[in-house]
Every structure is written in structure tokens, then in C-alpha cells.
Amino acid sequence: xxxxxxxxxxxxxxxxxxxxxxxxxxxxxxxxxxxxxxxxxxxxxxxxxxxxxxxxxxxxxxxxxxxxxxxxxxxxxxxxxxxxxxxxxxxxxxxxxxxxxxxxxxxxxxxxxxxxxxxxxxxxxxxxxxxxxxxxxxxxxxxxxxxxxxxxxxxxxxxxxxxxxxxxxxxxxxxxxxxxxxxxxxxxxxxxxxxxxxxxxxxxxxxxxxxxxxxxxxxxxxx
Length: 223
Fold this sequence. Notes:
Layout: E1 5-6, H1 18-24, H2 26-42, E2 52-56, H3 58-69, E3 76-81, E4 85-97, E5 100-115, E6 118-137, E7 140-151, H4 154-166, E8 175-178, H5 179-184, E9 187-190, E10 193-208, E11 211-221
Antiparallel strand pairs: 1-11, 2-11, 3-4, 4-5, 5-6, 6-7, 7-8, 9-10, 10-11
């Protein structure tokens, strides 16, 4: 069986999660794989495939972000000194605006300096709004220029602003969402043949209203 099969013109779709989107496109993937195998056996090689597009609506982005970033018991740790001093986000709500991903969440922080197994500082909690500029890089979605746009609790806001003035790297400025990792968890079956995702290359990322549109090239294989 030939490997490195590419899809041609995967239809745009909006799913409740990345897995749901991929399952919806499984028939299209199978059709493309079958066509390539038939042509490879009876005719010349296919030309290079055009880029396909995947549209992720709010629920799809919510699921992808939670699976990839909030992967420690539903928490995204912005900082963690071996569980002594830390800042994490929980209970996220994701939306898109322009070219930024906006995340409303609850922040829990033990802000200070580790000393003798304890954190010398203050305990803070607040609802916050965090955002990052989203772009594609290889098989990943990158969040750049991560910033805290709003801290509802005044005490937490003042303490966090002071901490960031002292150490601007107290929170990460970038984060990665591995699209290939999510895709590889899926196996598209048709009859006795299972088709696997080998590679994905993100050619571009755009936003339209509350939808993220990912242009990509995809390589498939079957054992």
C-alpha cells in the first residue's frame, strides 16, 4: 500500500471538537486514499495536492485548547516552581476575535519566592481574561504575545502587575497547540483498511468572525 497519500480539497467543516471534525471528514479522506491507490496502480502519479481547509468554531476551539493546554487536571500552569509557588488557570471559555484567541478563566496563584519548601508571598484568586496572537507553524498552532488583558479582583491585579514589572517572564509569552498530535489519535477506517495521519503542514491561519480557518496539507498512509 502506498504511503504519503495527500487529501485533495477536504471540505470545510465546523465541529464540536477536533475529533468530531475529523470523523466528519473520514469519508472524504477514504475517498481520496482509494483514488490515489487506484491511479497509482493503473496510471501516472497524481500532481501535488492543493491545500485543504479546516474551520473550527467556538466549540471546536474550546475542546482543542482544553485538551492541549489545560492538560493537568483541567489546569493550565502559567508558572510552577515544583508546586511551591505557582499560577494556573482553570474553567476556561475560549473565543476568537480578529487574529487573537481570547481566554476567560479563573486564575489561582501562590505568588512569591520559594524558600525551604514554602512559598513566601500571597495567595490570589480572580477571574481573568488572557489572549494570544494565533498563527501556524509546521504542525502546530502557536500562541504568541500572550498577555493578561483583565484581572477582575483589584488586589490580585495589583500584585500581578507588580510581579510582572519585577519579572516580565513570570508568565509565558508563547504556547503551542499540537494539531498533529490530535490528528494522530484518529484512525479512519473503511472496510478492512485503516488510514492514519502521518504529517500535517499548516500553510496559513485566518479568522472569520468567531471561526478559526486553518489551511493545511495532509499526508496519509495505510499499512
